[in-house]
Structure formats: structure tokens, C-alpha cells
Amino acid sequence: MNWTITKQHEGKLIRHYLQQDLQFSRKLIKHIIHGGGEILVNQTKQTLRYRLRDGDLLTVQFPAEQKGSHMVPEKMPLDIVYEDDAVLVLHKPAGTVTIPSRLHSTGTIANGVLAHYEEQGLPYTFHVVTRLDRQTSGLMLIAKHRWSHSILSQAQKDGTVSRSYYAVIEGHMEQKKGTIQEPIGRKDGSIIERTVTTDGKAAITHYEVVREGDGHTLVDVRLETGRTHQIRVHFSHLGHPLAGDDLYGGATACINRQALHCHHLQFFHPISGEPLRFSVAMPRDIRQLLQSNERNFSST
């Protein structure tokens, strides 16, 4: 990647320019220096202590990206909502795993994205920013390269990556609008389940009731933090598990997966800073769940 230096940045150390103006993290810079990358000025290798001059051509060559053993390109249909040189926004269907594992080594979003990159001649690996559970559908944000991933990962920690979900929960909420603020950690004896626990990590979920029926409620949920299974754990903790979520106490009679869908995604572009907003419709199975109870649902 190349940048032409202007008078505005003349005299700055390369280190400061990368960190302050290009939002390179210290971890990323360290990886470039010690991982096989190079920093060049006018095609000559320089250190981070070089002071930039007006007209200099700064080049950062990133180390070759290493792919895990299961990260094998596999051509498959991808519902691409948005794509540019830095980011990829996908609409993930329910039932598709995000990243390969021992139990799901193929057919994942990562496999498909790597094949998509391969077709474009891009040497990148898979950098997911907003991961979705296997049975959760909706919008997913992926950073294409290390630089955009570094910026977006920090943005997510800072709370400037916003996600909203539709969830169908069992029962009714006493408060029709509110915030669930309970720490979440791994459940003892399980490598999958999470639970509300005093020694867990901070987790904040905002919600608002949209429609109510005799046995279910449609809620619009906004995440302030992104803990594993956060929405599922928080509503289950309150005695209102998601419909279809048998892992956390939900019944599967009406739908065979957790009724959870990421319908809105908002973030600032990692390179341009432009605000980007995306929305997708509610999926068919959740619509059918609501329609099957149509007579019993009412707007609040």
C-alpha cells in the first residue's frame, strides 16, 4: 500500500504517521516489522524513526497472510450486500457456520470468502469482524485485509460498530423497552454454553418490544457489546429464551433454529471514515413463525 506525503505531515516520524493518521495499531506495526513485511520511502527501506518529507512515497508491504489448515477456498454462493477494497458485507443464511472447525471443516462462510478472494487474485485470509452463530441469520461484517481489520476491531471495542437484531422470544417482557446489563462467561463443564456470571465479561443488550402474541414476543435488539451468544443468554437469563433455541431453553415446536436475525449493520468505513448503513429483510422462517400466530400478535 502506498501513500504520498503532503506538507501537512512533513516532519512526522513514520511511526506517528502510521499510528495517528492511518490508525495502524501497535500490534499491526510490530507484525509488519517482525513478521516479514517492509516499510519503504521512495523505494528505499526505512525505519519507523524516519522523518517524512513533502512528496515522499511511503510504501508498507504487509507480510504474507497465513491461512489455517481448514482455510481452504471452496466456491459457493455468497449473498454479497456490499464490497470494496477494504470491507465485505454479507447476508448469512441460517445453518451456515462462519469459521471452519473440527466438526465443520467445509461449507463455511470463510471457505466461500476465500474462494471469492481467489477469483479476484487477492492474497488475503478471512478476517471476520461481526461473527454470527451457525443458526443466526443476517448481516455480517468482514475486513478484507489486516489494516481494515485492525481499525474495525478497535471500532467494535469502542462501540462504533452497531448491530440490530430481530428476535422472537417466549413469553412477554414486563418492561417493553430497556437494557439488559449482565456479565457473561463460559458455563462450567461446557465448551459451548455461556451463562450470566459475576466473573464474566461485561455485556450490554438494548431491546424494544415490536409485537406481542399469546406465547411469543418480537423484539428489536441492539448490541452494545458482542459477547458469544449474548442475546440468547441474556433473554434466557430473564426467563424468555428465544423461540427454537433449545440450547438455552427455547422450544423448537414453531421453528427449528433460534429465531434471531441481524437486520441492521452500521459502521464507519475503516479507510475513508464514511458512515455506512445496511439493512436486510426478516427471513422467511421467522416471518412464517409470526404469521402462524398472526391472530395472536399485536403491535405495541
TrEMBL record:
<keyword id="KW-0413">Isomerase</keyword>
<comment type="function">
    <text>Responsible for synthesis of pseudouridine from uracil.</text>
</comment>
<dbReference type="InterPro" id="IPR050188">
    <property type="entry name" value="RluA_PseudoU_synthase"/>
</dbReference>
<dbReference type="InterPro" id="IPR006225">
    <property type="entry name" value="PsdUridine_synth_RluC/D"/>
</dbReference>
<dbReference type="InterPro" id="IPR006145">
    <property type="entry name" value="PsdUridine_synth_RsuA/RluA"/>
</dbReference>
<dbReference type="Pfam" id="PF00849">
    <property type="entry name" value="PseudoU_synth_2"/>
</dbReference>
<feature type="domain" description="Pseudouridine synthase RsuA/RluA-like">
    <location>
        <begin position="87"/>
        <end position="237"/>
    </location>
</feature>
<protein>
    <recommendedName>
        <fullName>Pseudouridine synthase</fullName>
        <ecNumber>5.4.99.-</ecNumber>
    </recommendedName>
</protein>
<dbReference type="InterPro" id="IPR020103">
    <property type="entry name" value="PsdUridine_synth_cat_dom_sf"/>
</dbReference>
<dbReference type="InterPro" id="IPR006224">
    <property type="entry name" value="PsdUridine_synth_RluA-like_CS"/>
</dbReference>
<keyword id="KW-0694">RNA-binding</keyword>
<comment type="similarity">
    <text>Belongs to the pseudouridine synthase RluA family.</text>
</comment>
<dbReference type="GO" id="GO:0016853">
    <property type="term" value="F:isomerase activity"/>
</dbReference>
